[in-house]
Amino acid sequence: MRALFTAATGMDAQQIRIDTIANNLANVGTTGFKRNRAEFQDLFYETLQDPGSETSAGQILPSGSQVGHGVALGSVSRVHAAGDRIATQRDLDLAIDGDGFFQIELPSGDLAYTRDGSFQLGPDGALLTRTGAAVQPNLQIPIDAQNVTILEDGTVSVTVAGSTTPTVVGQLEVVRFANAGGLRATGGNLFEATAASGDPEVGTPGLEGFGGISQGFLESSNVNMAEELVHLILAQRAFEVNSRVIETADEMLQRATR
Fold first, then answer.
1. Main-chain dihedrals φ then ψ at residue 235, nearest 5 degrees
2. How far apart are CA 119 and CA 104, in angstroms?
3. CA neighbours within 13 Å on the CB side: how many for 30?
4. Whose CB has fewer CB within 10 Å in the chain, the N or C terminal residue?
5. Are 141 and 166 in contact (CB under 8 A)?
6. C-alpha count within 13 angstroms, C-beta hemisphere, residue 77
7. What average pLDDT does the segment 7-33 reach?
8. Please, are residues 106 and 112 in contact by the beta-carbon 8 Å criterion?
């Protein structure tokens, strides 16, 4: 009974879809999180009659006969649409308005990329992520800095004790990719470059299409709860329908074996 196995692939597909939605909803409050979307493709077909083949009477079949064998996961893609900006009034909270990622150097020496701009200062004045990874390029904030100002183009200046004149201490950069959807998520709000994403292109914030930097803001998750709940209901109903197909096929088998 082909319907049993076909419906089973439908149930598996909807389970993956629900898992994806669950992850989106779990990260609705995660800074810089980008929602995932499960995408599916139909499986191979058994061809009973080829479209366009000739009948015994010499006529051309306009459509033919093909029976499908269900559905399979095509990909779980990431939607890199921008999230809302949340004002924090904290000098080291940064958001990118537009295209780009902050570049992070991991303890291993590898580079990672993030939209999470909730940075902190290390004991030597270096700009770090909450896990202690260093923001690139390296810059040092003086310990006696009274005020830190980060402009839209990434210029970092400070006012130290005993002085009223700001001093430039460094320049932040952002990177972008030809295919941001090809980045590999590694957890901790970080991504790694892959062959699919292409090599990172480094640029100055706010110039040549790179997003500018907004100080005192963070980018929220781009998950829309209402939209995810609608998709959750649709996935649940599709799962139930496929389950019902299995029940119907089972009843047909019972009748056939009596």
1. -65, -40
2. 11
3. 16
4. C
5. no
6. 11
7. 96
8. yes
Rounded Cα distance, 253 and 36, in Å? 39
Please choose, from the candidates 222, 245, 242, the residue with its C-alpha nearest in 3D space to the C-alpha of residue 234. 242
pLDDT at position 37 is 96
Please answer whether residues 69 and 44 qualify as being in contact, where contact means their C-beta atoms are separated by less than 8 angstroms. yes
The model's pLDDT over 181-232, given as tens digits with 9 standing for 90+, comes to: 999 999 999 999 999 999 999 999 999 999 999 999 999 999 999 999 999 9
pLDDT digits (tens, 9 = 90+) for 43-59: 988 888 888 787 777 77
Report residue 9 as tokens: 């692939």
Whether the ω angle into residue 107 lies within 30 degrees of 0, i.e. cis, is no
pTM for the predicted model, two decimal places: 0.86
pLDDT attached to residue 22: 97
pLDDT at 28 over 90: yes
Q: Tell me what pLDDT residue 78 has.
A: 95
Q: What is the DSSP string of the chain?
A: -HHHHHHHHHHHHHHHHHHHHHHHHHTTTSTT---EEEEEEE--EEEEE-TT-B-TTSPBPSS-EEEE--EEEEEEEE------EEE---TTBEEEESS-BEEEE-TTS-EEEES--B-EE-TTSBEE-TTSPEEES--B--TTEEEEEE-TT-EEEEEETT--S-EEEEE--EEE-TTGGGPEEEETTEEE--TTT---EEE-TTSTTPPEEEETEEEPP---HHHHHHHHHHHHHHHHHHHHHHHHHHHHHHHHT-
**Virtual CA dihedral for 73, 75, 81, 82, nearest 10 degrees?**
100
